[in-house]
């Protein structure tokens, strides 16, 4: 189904409700530059890391597209757990898993409070940016503590530049991309206003510093387009 969420005037801040959930896959593909390519990279590293009997968590799994794709490529037995706090998203995820025959443990959970088991891989696709900065580092530390030695955390985030002109140009470049995907100026403006103070991005350097402060031995960008980046952090 095509994303037309912001063709009408917004009445509240952005939330992952039923209206968003039913068009979310289209929204991602048209709103996140090279989304499929960044997901392929994420899948590659996740599959290399997972061993027989291993465990992967997807934090903010939305409609479970990533875990479904990973499940189809697995040559071993592994546990795939998707966590999200939106019932609407999880409902879409369950429908997709059933239709595609994917065995994934989908749970409604607060990723800040969840009791994680020792895992091989954590994935977070454009989720940290929705976690309040005051507790974001606390979550990343919890992820590091819950990973096995040499485990990995793969996360994608919208990023900012602290150079004011460059940051402005990056935003303009991104808006041009959205227009090429068929979004109108009005839809772009509406979504920007809905996300105000809901989505709070860090810079590339700030994300790397956060990961290292939280116990990861290494962190770097493995894919970037303008102000969108995919990171890998190694415990």
From TrEMBL:
Report the InterPro entries cross-referenced here.
CmoA, Methyltransf_25, SAM-dependent_MTases_sf
Q: Which reaction does it catalyse?
A: prephenate + S-adenosyl-L-methionine = carboxy-S-adenosyl-L-methionine + 3-phenylpyruvate + H2O
The record's section on Gene3D superfamilies has: Vaccinia Virus protein VP39
Q: Name one GO molecular function term.
A: carboxyl- or carbamoyltransferase activity
Q: Which residues bind S-adenosyl-L-methionine?
A: 35, 60-62, 84-85, 110-111, 125, 192
Keyword annotations for this protein, in alphabetical order, are:
Methyltransferase, S-adenosyl-L-methionine, Transferase
What EC number(s) are associated with this protein in UniProt? 2.1.3.-
Q: What does this protein do?
A: Catalyzes the conversion of S-adenosyl-L-methionine (SAM) to carboxy-S-adenosyl-L-methionine (Cx-SAM).
HAMAP family in the record, alphabetically? Answer: Cx_SAM_synthase (MF_01589)
What is this protein called in UniProt? Carboxy-S-adenosyl-L-methionine synthase
Species in which this protein is naturally found:
Sulfurimonas gotlandica (strain DSM 19862 / JCM 16533 / GD1)
